[in-house]
Design goal:
Cytidine Deaminase, domain 2; Ubiquitin-like (UB roll); alpha/beta; 4-stranded mixed β-sheet; globular
Amino acid sequence: MTEASARVPSRRVSEAREGAARVDDTSRFIPEEVPVALVYDGSTHAVMMATPADLEDFAVGFSLTEGIIGSPAEIRELEIVAQEKGIEARMWLVPVSGRMHAERRRRIAGPTACGLCGVESLEAAVPAPRTVGNSATATPDQVHAALAAMPLAQTLNLATRAVHAAAFWDANAGAIAMVREDVGRHNALDKLVGAVTLAGLDPARGFVVLTSRVSVEMIQKAAMLGAEIVVAVSAPTALALRVADEAGITLVAVARPDAFEIFTHPGRITLAIHGDDARQEVHVHALPL
């Protein structure tokens, strides 16, 4: 199986005194990126460029967020097979799920262009998201603790400085329960969805943490997991905000060590900030009607 990273030679050019450049031969770790085919009952559904790590989680998570299955129990067999030019995640579905997936593939068969492949209408491009529950809560201290724990938890990023991460903060344990990394932010979240689901963790007993920007697909995937709170270090798109609001997700973004902003459903963040503690700043936005 391909390793998740590789050490390669490089030449470092740095500024030196008196206008002369300093050149040093060195090396660094960089992440691997390989084609990963998602195969159901012998037919390839999609090929994603991904980091070759945690691929079982990826296969299950992708299947869940794409609506191919409703639970991991619908996959009766899963095999990760290395090929000469990539990797296949081969899944065999239970008969009912297999028939439903085959029918769906027949409906979307035909030539597609770049973008949302297999989508035949504007309405299908942004479907109504799954609505999440309303039992999760978090404090500013928990949000900041999760952010502070993320750098050391991202082992692949520590080595390469070139991958995205998605993590699950377990409120009961007061710690990050799991982290998944990938060159693709969507893949990282799919891996996390698979890992959380396979571990039997309750998404309402914590929150998802993202190191990437929040596009609409990230919100759609979080909704499929049932995550009620999503915390991201970067900013969201306007469409992601509208979909998060529709799904009932509390979206915390632009999260920094000393501040974060709440964009949707702020009631889940309990803002009992210590009286004279100026260390934490929380900004709450209201969506325009």
